[in-house]
Specification:
- With 104 residues, this protein is mainly α.
- Among the domains are: 30 residues, no CATH class; 35 residues.
- It has a two-stranded antiparallel sheet with strand order 1-2.
- Strand 1 and strand 2 form a beta hairpin.
- The protein starts with a helix and ends with a helix.
Length: 104
C-alpha cells in the first residue's frame, strides 16, 4: 500500500514531454538515481531516505488502517506530553517577556 501511495504522489514529479522537447521540472521531495539499471538498490536507498525524512510516518498517518487500542493510548500520551511541553515553554517565554517589559 505504501508503494501505491508513493506512486500516486510521484506522478507529478516526472518531466513532461511536449513536441519532442523535454521540460525538466525542479526536483521536489526525494530524488533517487538508478545506477546501472539496479532498481532494487534504488528502492532500498529511497526507503532509507523516506525513513530518515519522516515521509513514511506521514504516509502511514494519512492512510486509514486499524490502530490498536494500546497504540492509541501511546499516541495520545505522546500528544499530551507535547502539548504540556509547548504550554510550559509558552509560560516561561511569557514570564521572560513580562520581566523584560517591567525592568525596561
Amino acid at each position: 500500500r505504501a508503494m501505491q501511495a508513493l506512486a500516486r504522489a510521484a506522478r507529478g514529479l516526472w518531466p513532461a514531454a511536449g513536441r519532442g522537447q523535454v521540460q525538466l521540472q525542479p526536483a521536489r521531495g526525494i530524488v533517487v538515481q538508478v545506477r546501472d539499471g539496479n532498481l532494487e538498490r534504488a528502492l532500498q536507498v529511497m526507503e532509507r531516505k523516506m525513513r530518515s525524512s519522516g515521509i513514511e510516518r506521514l504516509i502511514k498517518r494519512r492512510t486509514e488502517h486499524h490502530v490498536k487500542n494500546s497504540e492509541k493510548r501511546v499516541l495520545a500520551r505522546k500528544a499530551l506530553m507535547a502539548r504540556v511541553r509547548s504550554q510550559e515553554l509558552g509560560k516561561s517565554l511569557r514570564d521572560i517577556l513580562i520581566k523584560k517589559i517591567r525592568s525596561a
